[in-house]
Specification:
four-stranded mixed sheet, about 25% strand, about 350 residues, globular, alpha+beta, Methyltransferase, Cobalt-precorrin-4 Transmethylase, Domain 2, 11 helices, disordered C terminus, 3 domains, about 30% helix
């Protein structure tokens, strides 16, 4: 085992189990690592020891509890707990803490930074300096998870490469590049690893889930009394953002509805929802969401009556997103434009 220091800390299993659990201390260390260069916490190995106690077993639900407790007490902190079995048969938790892109803090506004083997509080002008450093490292270009560029999903990679080469927004000279060169050109990969934008668009399901901020979409339909009557969720991270748009459009049965209107001797079918408008709504939510923070995208469907527009009450429905997103991924801009998901100035496309 490595000695405790800038990138590593060890804690007894008692710090996360039972009445002796000190979640605030664990959160402080996670925030300190996240605000520095990232690091690991070995939970279940006592200070000064190289291995966990022989025969030590980790409760099956402890990793989920750790995720929940840290998420409840911190902001902009992602943790990746993994149960490891040592050579002596004892188990411990390797809690990886990636470097935070936004400034990490407790929910009550306290900041910490890892200095040598201690988690030091950050105060005064140091908080502003910490925030300024974060702006220089965009989320989408980071390779924190160290996923090899060869670990892409072949189907997703093929679809993306074909779409970029078929796009009229991509220069002919760019279309001539190889797949690896296109990954570098659009900053989907850095060196031998996929960047986080590359993982989001081209990674395997488990890799996308490890990003912790990969988009989740919820569709909720309400009746006239404001009661929920249907709910659909896309939260298994099997789809990248481009595939999510198609899945939502095809998966919501309400989007298939039509109204029949008189048209002389015939009747005309009018779609209840314009496909272009729905897709633009989804693209706006996906492109403009802040990927440094967790948060689901909600599509809320409400019925509305406009009785004065027609001779009889004409039912229509309003679809709205539950959040308003204002930040665009800057480094991923050229890639989004090539995919026709965004105009150069920032406006999204249907």
């Amino acid at each position: 085992m490595s000695q405790e220091g800038q990138l590593l800390d060890q804690k007894s299993l008692r710090s996360v189990i039972g009445k002796s659990a000190d979640w605030n201390e664990l959160v402080k260390d996670c925030i300190a690592f996240a605000n520095a260069t990232g690091g690991r916490l070995l939970l279940g190995i006592e200070d000064g020891q190289d291995a966990p106690p022989a025969g030590q077993q980790i409760p099956t639900d402890l990793t989920d509890t750790i995720r929940r407790k840290i998420a409840e007490r911190s902001v902009n902190v992602a943790v990746l707990p993994d149960v490891v079995t040592a050579a002596n048969g004892g188990q411990y938790i390797n809690l990886a803490v990636p470097r935070a892109i936004a400034v990490a803090s407790t929910t009550d506004g306290r900041y910490f930074l890892r200095v040598a083997d201690q988690s030091k509080p950050v105060t005064g002008d140091d908080v502003l300096r910490l925030a300024a450093e974060r702006a220089a490292l965009p989320w989408e270009t980071q390779t924190t998870l160290q996923v090899p560029r060869s670990a892409t999903d072949p189907d997703k990679l093929g679809k993306l490469m074909n779409a970029l080469r078929a796009s009229d927004r991509v220069k002919p000279s760019v279309k001539e590049k190889s797949d690896d060169e296109l990954l570098d050109h659009y900053q989907l990969a850095q060196g031998g690893y996929l960047a986080q934008l590359g993982i989001l668009c081209l990674g395997q399901q488990h890799q996308r889930a490890q990003l912790t901020t990969a988009p989740v979409i919820q569709f909720i339909k309400y009746d006239e009394r404001g009661q929920k009557v249907n709910k659909l969720v896309w939260d298994d991270h099997t789809l990248n953002p481009m595939e999510l748009i198609e899945a939502v459009w095809l998966g919501v049965p309400d989007f298939r509805e039509h109204y029949e209107l008189p048209d002389g001797l015939y009747r005309q079918n009018v779609p209840a929802f314009d496909e272009v408008v729905v897709r633009e709504l989804l693209v706006n939510a996906l492109v403009h969401r802040p990927y440094t923070q967790r948060g689901d995208i909600f599509l809320n469907l409400h019925p509305v009556l406009f009785p004065r527009l027609f001779h009889a009450p004409f039912p229509t429905q309003i679809l709205a997103t539950g959040r308003v997103f204002s930040r665009i991924m800057p480094s991923g801009g050229r890639f989004l434009e090539g995919e026709r998901m965004r105009e150069a100035g920032g406006a999204s496309l249907g």
